[in-house]
Write a structure and sequence with these properties.
The protein is α+β, with helices and mostly antiparallel strands. The protein folds into 2 domains: about 10-160, 3-Layer(aba) Sandwich (Aminopeptidase), CATH 3.40.630; about 165-360, Aminopeptidase (3-Layer(aba) Sandwich). Helices cover about 30% and strands about 25% of the residues. It contains 7 helices and 16 strands. It starts with 11 loop residues before the first strand and ends in a 9-residue tail after the last strand. It binds coenzyme A. Coenzyme A binds near residues 117, 120 and 151.
């Protein structure tokens, strides 16, 4: 601890860790984020996840705060994080549309012996502006995002504004109960059915989703007279979630084959369907009820956002697939982030059991705006602020 530079020392810089330094950091972060796995499995996961389509070729960047006077592998790792590049679409109030990228910050960490000395703050103060131009040869970056697990104040004080962070929680359907006619679903008279979605279905659906989101972002910008944007759920981003899921399940359920069902779509012609993409997420051991293991709907699309009995049946049908899959994989609940008023009204018509949770501590969607103005929720509109964008 002696000779540690003060957090405001001019010698402290943002740098990229070496392979050895990344391993050193992961060995420490395992206590925070590797609780569902052995240390070896956690290290294997982190290495695996940096070499998949979303992350390879600069899709992920690792950052450290360190002392510039010391050489790599002999310098202190005073704090660390990573940023994941994701595509975006931005519309201005005049209807102009721009494609770009965002960098989602994750795994912000300071080793226990260096905590409360201002190092993470210093790292983030350097990182915020650096991300505005990071990889600018690829595309403009209108904002960076992060999902705080330490409440609403820390990152807000550093310039990442808090955005809506709620979810609907629905109980899983245990494997033994039958679909649609039990105490969890209410007595549904639904005729609607849903078809499970597998990996091959996603590229085409996600292309259609890009068109939908582009229209929605543009309409929102014109209607609200505010810059409006969405992070795009492209194939690589969705695959990132599913490869992570497959890795975790292979360790937690070594005798079971990986699930092939990762979504569900209702009946109906294109333009009238409701569909979801989901993922099983494990933060801690299966036996730990407080670990936060959950079944997440990564993306929910209501192609024709109208409150009708038909849409309510379609929504119930796709959500039931999620509830059943959650039960199959020992998860207690299904979470759907930041749903629209229409979705809540539709759910109200289904008779299904659900509650809305306003998160105060974890996964607080936070955004640093690089354009004009403050870029808080009163000034810009974040369309589809859903779990798929989490990092
Ligand atoms: C969060 C973390 C990166 C902060 O690192 P740090 O270098 O100690 O941070 P700084 O010295 O810049 O700032 C200290 C302040 O951080 C805030 N902070 C730290 N941990 C916090 C927590 N769990 N909840 C809320 N605020 C927290 C406090 O405001 C603290 O000020 P205090 O000393 O008055 O309590 C570090 O505690 C850590 O690695 N924690 C474990 C991993 C983690 O939770 N990361 C955040 C993921 S979003």
């Amino acid at each position: 601890m002696a000779n540690l530079p003060p957090a405001n020392s001019p010698n402290l810089v943002l740098a990229h860790p070496t392979k050895e330094e990344k391993r050193q950091t992961w060995t420490l972060t395992a206590k925070n984020w590797g609780n569902a796995l052995s240390l070896d499995d956690y290290l294997e996961r982190e290495e695996f996840l940096e070499n998949i389509p979303q992350t390879q070729d600069g899709g992920v960047t690792h950052w450290i705060l360190t002392d510039s006077t010391l050489p790599p592998n002999s310098r202190p790792l005073l704090s660390s994080c990573e940023s994941l590049r994701r595509p975006t679409i931005l519309a201005l109030p005049d209807g102009t549309i721009k494609s770009g990228v965002t960098h989602g910050i994750g795994s912000v960490f300071c080793p226990p012996e260096y905590r409360k000395m201002g190092y993470a703050t210093r790292m983030l103060k350097l990182l915020g502006p650096a991300l505005a131009t990071h990889q600018k040869e690829i595309a403009e970056c209108p904002f960076s995002v992060l999902y705080s697990d330490i409440g609403k104040k820390y990152y807000a004080n550093l310039g990442w504004k808090v955005f809506p962070s709620s979810h609907l929680s629905l109980p899983a359907i245990p494997p033994t109960t039958t679909n649609g006619h039990n105490e969890i679903n209410g007595t549904s008279s639904s005729n609607s059915t849903a078809t499970p979605l597998t990996q091959e279905d996603f590229p085409d659906l996600l292309k259609q989703d890009l068109d939908l989101l582009t229209k929605q972002v543009k309409t929102t910008a014109i209607a609200t007279k505010k810059p409006s944007f969405a992070i795009i759920p492209d194939s690589e981003t969705i695959q990132w979630h599913h490869l992570r899921q497959t890795f975790m399940l292979s360790k937690l359920f070594p005798t079971r084959a990986a699930p092939t069902i990762n979504g569900a779509i209702s009946t109906g012609a294109p333009g009238s369907r409701i569909w979801i993409i989901f993922s099983r997420v494990f933060y801690g051991p299966l036996t730990d009820a407080a670990a936060g293991n959950k079944f997440y709907v990564l993306r929910l699309v209501v192609e024709d956002e109208r409150v009708s009995d038909e849409n309510a049946e379609k929504l119930a049908a796709v959500l039931r697939v999620a509830q059943r899959e959650a039960g199959e994989w020992e998860l207690k609940s299904v979470a759907v982030w930041n749903v629209s008023g229409v979705v809540k009204e539709l759910l109200g018509k289904t008779g299904m059991q659900w509650e809305e949770v306003e998160r105060e501590e974890d996964s607080i969607a936070s955004l640093m705006w690089y354009g004009e103005g403050e870029g808080g929720p009163a000034e810009v509109e974040w369309v589809a602020n859903e779990k798929f964008a989490w990092c």
